[in-house]
Amino acid sequence: MARPNDPFSQNIDWLTLLLYLGCVTMGWLNVYAAVYSPEDHTSLFDMSTNAGKQLMWIGTTVILIICVLVINHTFFDTFAFVFYGFMILLLILVLFLGSNINGSRSWFKFGSFTLQPAEFAKVATALALAKYLDVPGINLSKQKDLLYIAGIIVLPCILILASNETGSTLVFASFAIMLYREGLPGWIPAVGLAAATLFILALVFAKLYIFLGIVVLLVLVILLMPRYNRTMPNLLGMGLVGLMMMGYVAGVDFFVNNVLQKHQRNRIKVLVDPTIDPLGVGWNVTQAKIAIGSGRLQGKGFLEGTQTKFDFVPEQSTDFIFCTIGEEHGFIGSFVVVALFIGLLTRIVILAEKQRTKFARVYGYCVAGIIFFHVMVNIGMTIGLMPVIGIPLPFFSYGGSSLWSFSILLFIFLKLDSRRAGAMWR
After folding, report:
1. Any idea which of 33-37, 217-221, 318-322 has the lowest mean pLDDT?
2. Where primarily located (predicted)?
3. pLDDT tier at 7 (50, 70, 90 boundaries)?
4. Separation between Cα atoms, residue 358 and residue 271, nearest integer Å
5. Which of 210-214, 265-269, 359-363 has the lowest mean pLDDT?
6. Of 21, 31, 156, 244, whose CB is crowded by the most CB atoms within 10 A?
7. DSSP 228
8. Which H helix or E strand runs over 90?
9. Please, are residues 261 and 255 in contact by the beta-carbon 8 Å criterion?
């Protein structure tokens, strides 16, 4: 008879595990390709290179995964708020004791080993949200409950933003996917999407055109409204919404030029106009697109990427790892990677819908949302569709904090799912 907490005797979803192993293996090989030098002939197992170090991270990740699978499933539910509180404490401490790396004070450094609490804060926040929403009587249509949930999400965001980690802060917006599934009123994400759309339009088009567009839109809405809804309060309300939209558009320039930091302004300018300063602020995106485009259909071949070999793309083994995939494996390789992520995300959502407890379902959707956001933004920024905000590609980008956090995030869910599938616990 299998032992109750034997990780190999539990009903782990093997399809999800295979997709995970595929991502990690391809990621390791592409980290090696990104740092490979024909002159040095370094091997996959050379611990002085990023590829060798990544292999070490993979090994330690296996230990963490076993620990997660051995722990009783009730542990994550019982101590969810404890994890959250501990991560908040680490986010505060890193502001004072952390090391400054690339302009961000968000790392604890222990010799050659670095750890970024912001990566693990996503896991803790997902657990805290699942715990809170699992309380009977919680309703996302109630203002009080929404304020509590907003507080759980916003608190780590403020601390991460204080350490100058804008990219990691934006990832917390991914929890909106889970909240919408759990009953968040539709007008809230609609307002968010409208605000994002107007922000982009205000950067691309003249303000006058946008104002005219808002007026035309309001007129069309009024004309299509049933006559009995054309009351004075409704019309005045729509007029107020129109004025608020115009005021928001008018304030975009002030926000960009006076609130955002210089490097953030530059990233937005590059997104709006990719041809701006190709040898300066636009260098990363320009070279990334050249690398991916040069791969064409089948790619140049493993370890044959010229953009990689001559270091044209900065941070190619971390934030811009997708450039290596596109250049060396072409459209086919890029399609395979995207298909892997689509398969993984689809499987997570399917499993989340099958959960018997709300805690597990909410957590599953948090996992799917976080991975989706990372994949969308990371790949999008390498092809010029998203601003460069410096977040890793899950399971592919080089780095211990990233690999550890995403693996823990995923395998906590697989542990919870194994309970549904009939795993034996005592």
Report:
1. 33-37
2. membrane
3. low
4. 39
5. 265-269
6. 31
7. G
8. helix 80-97
9. no
